[in-house]
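pinging the channel bc i need a second pair of eyes. not urgent but kinda urgent?? the chain im working w is below, pasted from the shared doc
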Amino acid sequence: MSAGSVAVVVSEGIGIPSWDLYELSIPCTVFGKPQSDLADPWYDLRLCGTGEPPADSGLLLRTPYGLDDLVGADTVIVPSVPDSCVEEGKPLPQALITALRRAYEGGARMVSLCTGAFALAEAGLLDGRPATAHWMHTALLAERYPKVRVDDSVLYVDDGDVLTSAGLTAGLDLCLHLVRRDLGAHVANQLARRMVVPAHRPGGQAQFIDMSVPAADDEGLAPVLDWARTRLDQPLTVDDLARRAAMSPRTFYRRLQAATGTTPLQWLLDQRLGRARILLESTDLPIEKIGELSGLGTANNLRRHFLRHLGISPSDYRRAFPRTTPASSP
């Protein structure tokens, strides 16, 4: 369990349009503000400038760190690239591409938010890999880099040491996912609560959700979802949830999918996996008991879901998050 160092690429000289500040601010907010009560030490954040001549437009930033500082960082994040490089095909700085390759070869975890995927693709780091970007740019990404397996339907893609996200809020989802990977579900959930954002949106959730149901009506799902979260250890069906929501199963299914981009059964599985992760991190309960409390059943069933969805066994997951304080039962 380790936070490590995070290097964020800042395109100094190209100029940063105001609409790109959101992607840049996301890693600064998630990794840059110390949260010593959640994890100590917290992340070591460095903004690394590209060192280009000043541009005539956009917001210009100056930082003491340069591209050489990408090498040696535990995580490298490219928040976005200039619109001219995406839409007009303007070449990205060769020094940036070289630095990204060197960082990856040095063992860094490579991450892009939104159009930052174009930089990773140009460096060849996405060849043969699944990747995503904002749905408005995925067709161009696929056309320009045919070796990349572009998926335009997901919020983010975790391919181990290379991760990519769609634009805007999906970048926040990915950064919180990184915290969850590094420091555990409890820390990520507490950080999300402080930021007043959803604790976890799975990467496979749809980028574009057809909100055919008015937003005000979607709030009516909150009580039944909260009710279900307190009963994850019990058998729950779509019929149970629909009955609690005073809807037909068909209507409930449609409403939940419209609001979250996922099905009721997948939503339940995500909640149960999250519950199991917190129990593994925070208690010494046997694996069998954790399977029961999370609603995932037997130890074998828990193990099967962890391997399929997280790529790790429950026991290995627990070893990755050793506790320094005595455990307490939930």
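so The two ends are 22 Å apart (CA to CA). and Residues 264-282 form the longest helix (19 residues). — does that match what u expected or am i reading it wrong
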